[in-house]
Design brief:
Blueprint lengths: L2 H6 L3 E6 H7 E4 L11 H12 L6 E11 L6 E7 L1 H22 L8 H16 L3 E3 L5 E3 L1 E2 L3 H8 L13 H20 L4 H17 L1 E7 L2 H13 L6 H13 L3 H18 L7 H12 L10 H9 L3 H18 L11 H4 L8 H12 L6 H13 L5 H21 L6 H16 L3 H17 L4 H9 L11 H6 L2 H14 L12 E5 L20 E5 H7 L4 H11 L5 H8 L8 H19 L4
Parallel strand pairs: 2-4, 2-7, 3-8
Antiparallel strand pairs: 1-8, 3-4, 5-6, 9-10
Length: 608
């Protein structure tokens, strides 16, 4: 913070223990704050530095502003910085409280057992006072007020009826911290008698409560917003998502209720785009790709300044940018889903996601582990749904070009995405965003397809890579081999052949199909280069039909292959139709693999 800013913003600082904090103050995590995010590394540090401390431990500072004053009870302080420390302290106190409750129910003999159980029960109540405070009229206040229902239910109210709510978003990391401390404390108590367990829990609680920090207190919410931003410029660990949330809540409205509404909209957006691990990195990546799907590309490091410049001081512009993110998050939530099967009733009949080819491309890109094309997919979805100048056939053409390019470039040749690839997608996205007529849209897509086609790897090398595909479920594979021989990947290829020739519809569940080795795997050696594992020896069957074929050679399988295989290429048709052919030989498999490679690259996955 500059010296000028320091003079303008009144600041008071007080050294407090956690016990002082939780006895004398009530804390509120405001709308613009980032979620709880401590993971195992931070929890390990907290456990070793605070919980196992030999003396008073100083662990940083909090920055707050007084949001509500009470004459005869604790004042409320909104937390600008330091909520991770305070929330973690509350979480471990809740685990210690629960351990006291468990101890009070121990069935342990001895003359002092009843008294010890009563002590444990009393210690649980004492610990609970640091989590929920009570005024002289019996009114209860959470010592830390957070938005997550799970926090209120599990951390602050041990007698609550379980709601069954999922631990998603920020609550997911709260659950991680709870489990971490439960395991640590259980290990500490293992083998201890009831009296020893009570003393051990008191010792752990005392160390948590003795930890000291400096509480910096401001006088207004606006000062809080400014300090929040300044902390970032001074190198505090704030992510892009944290800063943007603060920016939108602060700039979208001056009204408290409206700010709460913006915060709620932001949180729902975050829930859509976060993956299972709940990382805010997912949100940063989404915002970057959303931006680059509309405007000339910027690096992720440059994005925050670009957003500030774009929205300026207008509340309407803040809300406009939030609406952009909300719209793009609807499609983005389905990205990276290998098992994707779109429910049309959930997305609406007019959504681009209801077009089967779009869902197929999104699933294929997830299967190829490709995210570089996300900006292009967002641009296509948005143009179709919002402009009225993009036809369904244009959507399909663009998505197929992207999918087919990455099947060759990434899945087969394992080529890494480069700045050129990212730039190509950004250029396409911006040109599509700016297209104002159906003809211009078609011209943009055709130019894009030509650029992709011109960037394909050498056709001969790609066909050779295709012909080397294999499926060896019982063989020991290297990581590189596993990637290109996954069951879902091979099933995708065999399904795509059938879908191209319209013997199967789009939207198939990859897990509902099995892969049949026509020449039995029992003939194969331990090496994955055995022809029995080759793509030339594979076909697709429904799971139900797989058991009907048995493990015999071609003659034994002929009837089942005729009935249950959804698509037969010329080689397989010849094998099945030739009743005098009783066995598929290695040279037959090699020949079919080469023919499938030609068919795949010249026709099925062609960009032209």
């Amino acid at each position: 913070m500059s010296s000028a800013s320091s003079e303008l913003i009144p600041i008071k600082s007080t050294t407090r223990t956690i016990q002082d904090c939780f006895r004398l103050c009530l804390y509120v995590v405001p709308n613009f704050q980032r979620p709880y995010s401590w993971d195992i590394d931070e929890l390990d540090d907290y456990w070793s530095d605070v919980v196992l401390a030999q003396g008073d431990f100083f662990f940083g500072s909090t920055v707050t502003w007084e949001s509500k004053s009470r004459e005869l009870f604790n004042n409320s302080y909104s937390i600008i910085d330091g909520q991770q420390r305070l929330t973690t302290s509350a979480i471990i106190l809740s685990v210690i409280r629960d351990a006291f409750i468990a101890a009070s129910g121990r069935e342990e003999g001895g003359v002092d057992a009843h008294e010890l159980r009563s002590q444990a029960e009393a210690q649980a109540s004492n610990t609970q006072r640091y989590l929920v405070a009570e005024d002289d009229d019996g009114k209860k206040y959470p010592v830390i007020e957070r938005n997550e229902p799970n926090f209120k239910e599990v951390v602050q109210n041990p007698s609550a009826i379980p709601s069954g709510l999922k631990w998603n978003g920020s609550a997911r990391q709260i659950g991680v911290a709870r489990e971490y401390f439960e395991n640590r404390i259980q290990a500490t108590l293992d083998g201890k008698s009831l009296s020893e367990a009570i003393e051990a829990l008191k010792s752990l609680r005392n160390n948590v409560l003795k930890a000291r920090l400096i509480q910096v207190e401001l006088t207004s919410e606006e000062d809080g917003f400014l300090i929040f931003e300044t902390l970032n410029t001074r190198g505090a660990d704030l992510r892009l998502a944290d800063l943007v949330k603060n920016l939108l809540v602060r700039g979208g409205s001056l009204d408290g209720e409206d700010r709460a509404t913006i915060s709620g909209r932001w949180d729902r957006l975050v829930d859509r785009v976060q993956t299972e691990n709940g990382s805010m990195t997912d949100v940063d990546q989404f915002m970057w790709q959303s931006w680059n799907s509309r405007r000339p590309a910027v690096t992720e490091a440059e994005l925050y300044k670009q957003i500030i410049s774009f929205i300026g001081g207008s509340a309407q512009a803040h809300l406009q940018y939030l609406e952009e993110l909300e719209f793009d998050s609807i499609a983005y939530q389905y990205f990276d889903d290998i098992g994707l099967v779109i429910d049309k009733s959930a997305v609406g009949a007019k959504s681009a996601l209801a077009i089967p080819e779009v869902a197929e491309t999104i699933r294929a890109l997830a299967l190829f582990n490709v995210s570089v094309a996300n900006s292009a997919i967002l641009a296509v979805v948005r143009k179709y749904e919002k402009s009225g100048v993009m036809r369904q056939k244009d959507v399909v053409a663009a998505c197929r070009a992207i999918e087919n390019f990455h099947f060759q470039f990434t899945a087969l040749k394992n080529s890494g995405s480069t700045g050129g690839t990212r730039g190509r997608y950004n250029r396409f996205a911006v040109e599509l965003e700016e297209a104002l007529s159906k003809q211009t849209v078609q011209e943009v897509i055709e130019s894009f397809r030509l650029r992709l086609d011109g960037s394909l790897p050498d056709s001969k090398e790609t066909k050779e890579a295709f012909a080397k595909l294999f499926y060896a479920p019982k063989a020991r594979l290297t990581n590189a081999q596993k990637r290109r021989s996954r069951k879902q990947f091979i099933a995708y290829i065999l399904l795509r052949f059938a879908q191209h020739y319209k013997t199967l519809t789009l939207g198939q569940d990859l897990t509902a199909w099995t892969i049949e080795h026509i020449r039995p795997q029992s003939h194969a050696s331990a090496e994955v280069v055995s022809s029995e594992y080759s793509i030339g020896n594979l076909t697709l069957l429904t799971s139900a039909a797989n058991g009907d074929l048995g493990n015999g050679d071609l003659a034994a399988k002929r009837s089942g292959l005729k009935t249950f295989v959804p698509w037969k290429d010329p080689h397989l048709s010849e094998w099945v139709g030739n009743n005098e052919m009783n066995e598929v030989l290695p040279e037959d498999i090699t020949s079919r693999a080469a023919a499938l490679a030609d068919l795949a690259l010249d026709t099925v996955w062609s960009i032209k």
